[in-house]
Amino acid sequence: MATTLKEKRDYLRTAAGFTAVALVAAGLIWLGNRNDAITEAERLKAGVLTAHQVKTAFEGVGGRIVARPHEESERVAAGDLIMAIDPTDVEIAIREAEAQIRSLDAQIAELEGTIELTLRTADTTERETWRRIEEAEAARRTTAADLENARLVYERAKRLRPSGAVSEADYDAAKSAFDAKRAALQGAERSVRALAVGADEKALAKLRRTGSAEGIRLSAVENARFNAENQRNTLANLHAARDAAAAHLDDLQVDRDRLTLEAPQAGKILELLFEEGEIVGAGVPVALLETDRRYVEIYVSEADAARYAPGAEVPLYAPAIGRDFEGKVRFCEAAPEFAELRMVRECGQADLTLFRVRIDVPADVEGLLTGMTVEVQNE
C-alpha cells in the first residue's frame, strides 16, 4: 500500500524530534561531566612537580664550537662551562685594536708636545720681538733728533753761505751731515717696520707715540698660533679616533667573554644541540638545562584566588613520599581558557574564570622528585 504524503511528513517530524531530544541530552551529559571534572580539579588543587627549564645561547656571537666538556644528563653548578667558541678571530681583532690605540696614544703625545712647544716659542718670540721693536724705535727717535739738529745746521749754513759768513767747506759738511742723518732715519724706520711685520698703521702710530710695542700683532707669531690651532683640531680628531678604537676594543672584549657559555644556574643538562666542531649562530639555543628551581601549578576558582597572592606561604603534601612542606606563591593569573561552564547562562549567570597559580617548591625536600604529584593541603 503506497505511503501518503501526509504520512511521510508525520514520520519525518517524529524522527527530527527524537534527534533533537537526543542531541540536547548528549550535550547536557557532556557539560555535566566537564563541569564535574573541573569541580574535582578545583577540589583536589593538585599538580605535577615541574622543574624550571632554561635555554642557553651565545649572545651576539657565533662561530665554531671548540669545547663541550659535559654530556646530557650530567649535573652542572652555576658558572660551569657548557660550551665555548673558537676565540682566534676575536683575539686577533683585540690585538689589532690594542696596537691601534698604542699608535694613537703615541701620535697624541707627540702632537701635544709639538703644540705646547709651538705656543711657548710663539710667546717667547713675541716678547723678544716687542723688545727689539722698542729698541729699534728708540734708535729711530734718536736718529730723528739727530736729523733735526743736522737740518738746523744745514739751514743756517745755507742762509749764511751767500754772504760768505760760512765757508764752502762748512756748507758742504753741513749738507753732507744732513743727508747722512736723513738716510739714517730712513734706515731706522725700515728697521722698525721690518721687525713689526704685520702691524697696522694704528699700532705703529701708538708705538711712535708711546715707545711701547706691547700688543702689536706680529705675522710670524700669528701664523705660529694659527698653526697650533690647526694642530689642536688634528689633536681632537686623534682623540676621537682613540675613543672610537677604545669603544671597539671594549666591544671585542665583551665578545671574547661571550665566547664561553656558562650555566646560569645549577641543574641538569637535558639536551645539547651542537657537537664540538660544528658552527653555531648568535642567539641560537645550544643547550637546555633543568634547573633546581621547581614548582607546581594548580587551578583555583575566582572565589579562592585572593588566598594565593604572590609571596603567600602554601602548605603542600607529596603523597608519593608522604611528606608535608611549605611552598611560596610566585604568581596567580586568570586562565580564561579554563572557564567553568554554567548550565543556565540564559538566566544571567556568566562563566566563572579559573586562575592559574604557580607555587615554588623548596629544593631541600628529601625524596621529592620532578614529576611527582603535589597537593595543596586544605586549610
Oligomer: single chain
Mean pLDDT: 86
Helical element count? 5
User: Measured on Cα atoms, how large is the radius of gyration?
Assistant: 52 Å
Which sequence of SSEs, written as H and E, runs from N to C? HEEEEEHHHHEEEEEEEE
**What portion of residues is helical?**
40-55%
What best-fitting shape do the alpha-carbon axes yield?
Answer: rod-shaped
Low-confidence stretches: 1-6, 8-38, 342-348
What structural class results from the helix and strand content?
Answer: alpha+beta
Strand content bin? 15-25%
**Mind describing the biggest β-sheet?**
9 strands, antiparallel
* Strand count: 13
State the end-to-end distance: 75 Å
In words, what does this structure look like?
The chain has 379 residues and is of the alpha+beta class. The protein has a domain at 91-253. Helix content is 50%, strand content 23%. It has five helices and 13 strands. The chain has helices at 5-44, 88-160, 168-195, 201-210, 219-258, and strands spanning 46-48, 50-57, 63-67, 75-76, 81-85, 260-262, 267-272, 279-280, 285-301, 313-318, 323-340, 352-361, 373-376. The strands form two sheets. Strands 1, 2, 4, 7, 9, 10, 11, 12 and 13 form a nine-stranded antiparallel sheet that branches. Strands 6-5-3-8 form a four-stranded antiparallel sheet. Strand 10 and strand 11 (323-340) form a beta hairpin. Helix 2 packs antiparallel against helix 5. The longest helix is centred in the N-terminal third of the chain and has 73 residues, at 88-160. The relative contact order is 0.17.
